[in-house]
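Sharing a chain and its predicted structure for anyone who wants a worked example. Both blocks are below, sequence first, tokens second.
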Amino acid sequence: MSQRSGTIITECEGRVLRAFGEEVTILLDGERTAGKLTMWTEITPPGGGPPPHYHVNEEELFYVISGRVGFLANDNWHEVGAGGTAFMPCGLVHTFKNVGDQPSSMLVMTMPSGIEKFFARCAEEFAKAGEPPEMQRLFEIGVEHGIHFVLE
């Protein structure tokens, strides 16, 4: 059995990415976890959140640190506060939205890793604050990274 080493991230080491008014701080990525998972914190403004989507490759786990967040899963809407947790298996259409009047904060993980490349690409292309993203371009980038947005 090969030896693996642990990884410790200090409070100042995360890589901060911004797009769509959200702030994602990547704490662990595929490079640091041998491709096993990606972990980040996500600060979402009131009313913010992605369109409904599903992941081809990743399972996704959310833990609400602060604020109030609504989750769509299995065609049902659930609202949770601090301490609430949601798990979205690969292939399940889901979304989340900050339903409070203050920014929400979550700790999020995907297994396996890779989603950090999607976030980095979005931060490159959609970094201008206050400008809405070109949705068709967002959908194209999503597909390139195994994330499919679902329009109703």
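Comments welcome. The CA atoms of residues 70 and 79 lie 4 Å apart.
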